[in-house]
Amino acid sequence: MLYFTRWKAAAILLTAIIVCLFAIPNFLPEKMVQSWPKWAQRHIVLGLDLQGGSHILLEVDSNAVRKEKLEGLRDDVRRVLRDARAGYTGLVVRGNSVEVRIRDNSNFDQALAKLRELSQPLGGILSSTGQRSLDITTEPGNLVRLTLTDPAIVERVRQSVEQSIQIIERRVNELGTVEPLIQRQGVDRILVQVPGLQDPTRLKELLGKTAKLDFRMVDTAMPAEQALQGRVPPDDEVLYSASQPKTPYLIEKRVLVSGGDLTDAQPGFDQRTSEPIVSFRFNTSGARKFAQVTQENVGKPFAIVLDNEVISAPVIREPILGGSGQISGSFTVESANDLAILLRAGALPAPLTIIEERTVGPGLGQDSIAKGKISSYVGAVMVIVFMMITYGLFGLFANIAVAINVAMIFGVLSLLNATLTLPGIAGIVLTVGIAVDSNVLIYERIREEVRGGRTPINAIDAGFSRALATILDSNITTFIAAAVLFYIGTGPVRGFAVTLGIGIITTVFTAFTLTRLIVAYWVWWRRPQRVPI
Amino acid sequence: MRLLRIVPDDTKFDFMRFRRISFPISAIMSILAISLYFFHGLNFGIDFRGGTLLEVRTSSGAADISGMRTALAALNLGEVQLQQFGGPNEVLIRLAEQSGGEAAQQAAVSKVRNALGSGIEYRRVEVVGPRVSGELLSYGVIGLMLAILAILIYLWFRFEWQFALGAMIANVHDLVLTIGFMSVTQIDFDLTSIAALLTILGYSLNDTVVIYDRIREMLRRYKKLPMPDLLNASVNSTLSRSVITHVTVSLALLALLLFGGQAIHSFTATMMFGVVLVGTYTSVFIAAPILIYLGVGTGRDALSSADRDKPTHGR
Q1: Residue A66: closest CA among A112, A98, A101
Q2: For the complex shown, is ipTM > 0.95?
């Protein structure tokens, strides 16, 4: 146990030194490290609880996705039947299905065949699952029921999440923060982590808005108040103004031009009133549509609708042919700026809901770092002193091993670009507490062997070989706990699992190699007549 | 320099005789802890119950907690708790989960921000919606079960099944007592508490495994030694290590408890109880003697021909 070949000793020392060296970038100024090669730049990332920042978990509203999909399906059915010249009645959305009754017996089969073409195989043409987007059944009385399959809805939700992630990335990048993290979580969730944010309110406003922008005509056939009291025409709906007081407008459901046709949006000021505005530009097809609509409707009001609220409803004074325009409507400088960001980034395919938020201010982060440092130093000093008192020279060996152990933990954390959290620091302090346990196990075993009457070198040798088996067994159980914790935990708790797990690995490594090497070197050097523990 | 010997060499405590006391005590304590859990309950934090937590600091002098309380009570947000947290200008505000789904939680936070006005630094804001809180709780419970199962399988693989079962009984006992402790102290039970419980599980198993390792070694060496004597010898010979290790772990935990701040206070307090107080007791007084009842070592006489040598410890 005490004999090391020269190359083995060298390999052990080299491994320890290299791992420790990876920790260096954490302690140097960032500027200096940036000129190094990429592989050497790896460093520990401070968790949001230490750095300050926001962790926001968003969920795609699957019901909204389903509803939109069903309404789209209803429109498709209407189009298909019209193209097939098949008369129909009772086209409705019911539950997860769209139902329609074909009026004429003669062209029922032909209409049904056309409707069946609406059902697409899922997962692209290469998919072999055989799943389709619709279940189509018929009932007596020429009733056709088209039901959305569950895989089709899941697929649609998945697509919504993908699109939303891209749009959120564009929105968050406009905030100008460093290293935001945006990723899918599960089927219908998106995790957004933005470090170093003073106030998350603005971030949440940018995330929470769907930003669905429509240009639609105002129905002037009757005042909105009258429509509210009586019957709203089937092609219209009543929407309210975004600004206070909420005024109702009777708006046509038909969308003239949508936000998807915008190519750019910028905040600015109105030249006459110097109020904040948002100016926008359409793409070619949007510009053509907008020109045509404004030509046909001079003198009539149209509405700019954002997320089902009327931002403004100006009267068209002259045809707008240039493909650009401006939106004014009691904006502040900031809200005009935000709207421009939202319009540039595009509309979310479905509304997102914030289901979890954890924000730590930079002040608390700083305090936590300070507290983590103090408790680590105090804990380390107490353990070091105790080991010296208990084991003397061998205590010093243990302390050297533990110091290298901690340096290696930092090295591995850097290598993995791992996140350090406050519980993570606690994990390191605890590792210091138990890393010495491996030394204690070895030393106590040596004491026993000495009492059993062995010669010093024999006792040390036997102590190591017997204790190491125990060290492995006992550390594996803790490692299992750490692994489970890593799997189920999030954020700070996961940080604890990471440092605990890495700590266990480095502890076993140092116990098996470094401590043995140090003691072996000492034995070779001093040829001890008695063991000083 | 004379070195410190916390535990003298060659201790010969008769730990096994205590099993007639320690087993009933542990049984009573466990029943007490379980009834505490059912009748007194745990103080679930927002991770598991949903709701909102705000840590605020007033920029000018001590916080006017009663003034804040009146301002927040007027908002009709249901149960609102305010509590001084750390310094005199730091206040922890908790809101119960709002009815009306996910969006209602965010709306409540905005109301609180408006009501408290300016001059306040929001050091921490946590909002956990109803859906997430339910999931976190089930993840936590599943995680604990999974860890127990995984460790059980590992021990079964490494030792005989009696050892695995003995270790499991001992360590579930640790967890039960720690949950009792959390119920008595009404420490916030949240995700970090699950982390604490898992760590306690890991550490006290660590301790148990060290003793079991020794027992296994002794079983191979002394084939004729009566089981209680063999267990006594094993526990005594690892006693010094147990004590020293627990001193170092306690020192580390003490540093965290004293200087680690409020954020990890309940975490370290729970660990202190579980690892230091219960874990040590369990390995010595429960995990080792329970092997007698699980039938470890019976039938060894038939297999062995002769003792190789006499044990140096034990009676």
Answers
A1: A98
A2: no
